[in-house]
Write a structure and sequence with these properties.
The structure holds 2 protein chains of 2 kinds. By secondary structure, chain A is an alpha/beta fold. In chain A, 32% of the residues lie in helices and 25% in strands. Chain A contains 11 helices and 13 strands. In chain A, a hairpin with a 2-residue loop joins strand 1 and strand 2. The longest helix of chain A has 18 residues. In chain B, helix 7 packs parallel to helix 8. Chain B is α/β, with parallel strands linked by helices. Helices cover 32% and strands 27% of the residues of chain B. Classes of the chains: A alpha/beta, B alpha/beta.
């Protein structure tokens, strides 16, 4: 079995707010092996972006409290590193692609200059060599006229092109882990398909592991090998994408698959999930999904542990038993 | 909790409620300081039948919003004609009277479409200012508003609250109630679920379906979410760069798209529910995609 690039172990994290501490992640655990693509799936408030930002330590230090747990990147705990050590890793060993390419890029700098800046910082090479690397980096993200695009400003480019630039920046140091935080959410579907292919191809070529954050089950099924399902700050289920999509074990995952209309299905009834996403300040004492769960039983008032074997794990008291099918 | 896809045969025979005839709309935009003409609607013609859900799909820049604005009377066409219930409501040059209250719209993001400083009562009664005093009296009473709130799944006391006191899904319910308060015949739904969390989307879709039956509504459903379109719409028009490239029954469109762009659009949509659904990731190890 390949070694893990990233291990998140029982991570519990809170935000300091005017209304007191709000626990946004509770005991989140998962790992990513070298070169593997893992999807982190969840709705708003599930903690998917917070997890990603915690890994790259992008959360504001003053208001973030890691209560317990560890984030091991290449065997070292990210949470205890100094800022100087972190700077060596962030950007260089961990690349980050943000949702909105326009805000991730400097609007007042040409694309070429931005890439040049980053490449010289990472590789410490001469201007001439850097210029060649910029050219190659742009070609690698399938930009057909690299000379022209290098002279352009972000606002002159389409959303898809901008996201390619952000990917080129993130991949320029050849990181071991690429974090892609909803990289296609702001894009049209035909462009989304191209960007997904691009990320996958680059990851395979360079052996980069990818942590892919999304709320779109279709996207996960397209490019991830394993997935982690988050709900209200907890991992409710994780395992190989194929298995989960075919046989979801957690009632939330099942309900989600029935509630989201998929193009390949027609005529099958759509089943809404009753209720609303929980307020993180007032969570139920037991299972976080219990208030909306049709299979709820008395036992669900105590919190179910994440149990499983190998790659597969589920946090549900029903797991291992026959769930009444309805 | 379960709503089956409706029988669409009855709709096929129904009379037209909205007709666009060779509608044209151009905009002048500045590109690097030079004025360039963009054709946002290029000879667009289609008919929406009474009681159906007509989907308009296309990517950003395809002209979906321009068409919505034209139908709502927010923009005037440069050419062509739009008729509603047999009467011309938009044509170039003159401004025909607009049937206020008969055509309403639900916007994409209820966080921005509801005035944060208005209580729900005020939000709901505002559209009634544009309709006749009789209609206003009939539907603007507290009892009528409470009933309407109940029909969209909100409690009576919601009437005196502010939008920020509600969740995203509830806010969209308020926006839907606001559209229905004048008892319109036609409602334009502009991506009504795309700002909502996926677990809440289905609730709103089911609500729209039951309201359609209850109020006898016709919907024009603007979306880029092909999964929702397939589930919700009877017929679909595909827009590409301001042109309507294909109009077809939903099933026909998804099983046998005739235009090249429609095929490209459908191929791009990631799907998961088929056991044999194509996945990018498994093609990768042997040489990439």
């Amino acid at each position: 079995m390949t070694e893990s690039v990233l291990q998140v172990e029982e991570l519990t994290l809170s935000f300091r707010t005017a209304a007191g501490l709000i626990r946004v992640l509770r005991g989140v655990s998962f790992d990513i092996r070298a070169g593997e693509l893992v999807g982190l799936v969840g709705e708003s408030g599930s903690g998917k972006s917070v997890t990603a930002q915690a890994v790259a330590r992008l959360l504001p230090e003053e208001t973030t409290v890691v209560e317990s747990g560890r984030i091991l990147f290449a065997g070292r705990d990210v949470c205890t590193m100094t800022e100087a050590e972190m700077r060596e890793i962030r950007g260089r060993r961990i690349g980050y692609v943000f949702q909105e390419p326009m805000t991730a890029l400097n609007p007042a700098m040409t694309v070429g200059d931005q890439l040049m800046h980053v490449i010289r910082h990472h590789h410490g090479c001469s201007r001439r060599e850097a210029r060649q690397r910029v050219q190659r980096a742009l070609e690698e993200v399938l930009i057909h006229q690299p000379d022209l695009v290098a002279r352009q400003y972000p606002f002159e480019l389409s959303g898809g092109m901008r996201q390619r630039i952000v990917i080129a920046l993130a991949m320029s140091a050849n990181p071991a882990l690429l974090i892609a935080d909803e990289p296609t959410t702001a894009l049209d579907v035909t462009v989304q398909a191209e960007i997904l292919k691009l990320i996958l191809r680059l990851a395979r070529q360079h052996g980069t592991a990818v942590l892919f954050i999304t709320h779109d089950l279709g996207v996960v099924s397209q490019i991830c090998e394993r997935m982690v399902v988050l709900y209200a700050g907890e991992v409710v289920e994780r395992g190989p994408v194929r298995e989960i999509l075919r046989h979801p074990n957690h009632p939330y995952t099942r309900a989600l698959l029935r509630a989201v209309p998929d193009v390949a299905r027609r005529g099958e009834p759509l089943q809404a999930i009753p209720g609303e996403l929980p307020d993180l300040r007032h969570l139920p004492p037991g299972c976080v999904f219990a208030p909306r769960c049709v299979h709820r039983m008395e036992r669900c008032d105590t919190r179910p542990p994440l149990r499983g074997s190998g790659d597969t794990a589920v946090a549900c008291w029903w797991s291992g038993q026959e769930v009444p099918n309805r | 909790m379960t709503v089956q896809a409706r029988d669409t045969r009855a709709v096929a025979a129904a009379e037209p409620i909205l007709t666009l005839h060779q509608v044209q709309k151009r905009f002048l935009v500045r590109k690097r300081g030079i004025r360039v003409e963009t054709v946002a609607a290029d000879q667009v013609s289609f008919t929406v039948r009474r009681g159906e859900v007509f989907g308009l799909v296309g990517e950003s820049g395809s002209g979906k919003t321009t068409l919505a604005n034209l139908v709502m009377g927010l923009e005037a066409p440069d050419g062509g004609e739009i008729s509603f219930c047999g009467r011309v409501i938009a044509s170039p040059g003159r401004r025909p009277p607009f049937p206020y209250g008969d055509i309403q719209m639900v916007f994409q993001d209820p966080r921005s479409s509801l005035n944060p400083r208005m209580r729900v009562h005020q939000i709901l009664t505002e559209p009634l200012r544009a309709v006749s005093p009789e209609r206003r009296a009939q539907f603007g009473s507290e009892a009528a508003l409470v009933e309407l709130l109940g029909q969209v799944g909100l409690r009576p006391e919601s009437l005196h609250r502010f939008p920020h006191e509600f969740s995203g899904g509830q806010r969209q319910r308020i926006a839907i109630a606001r559209a229905l308060v004048t008892r319109p015949k036609l409602v334009l739904l502009d991506e009504p679920t795309s700002a909502l969390d996926v677990s809440v989307q289905a609730q709103v879709i089911q609500l729209l379906q039951s309201l359609q039956a209850e109020f006898g509504l016709t919907y024009v459903f603007i979306s880029h979410n092909m999964g929702v379109v397939r589930y919700f719409c009877d017929r679909v028009g595909v827009l590409y760069r301001g042109r309507l490239v294909e109009v077809a029954d939903t099933d026909t469109l998804f099983s046998a798209p005739s235009h090249e762009y429609t095929r490209r659009l459908l191929d791009a949509v990631p799907t998961w529910s088929h056991a044999g659904a194509e996945r990018l990731v498994e093609e990768a190890p042997n040489g990439g995609v």
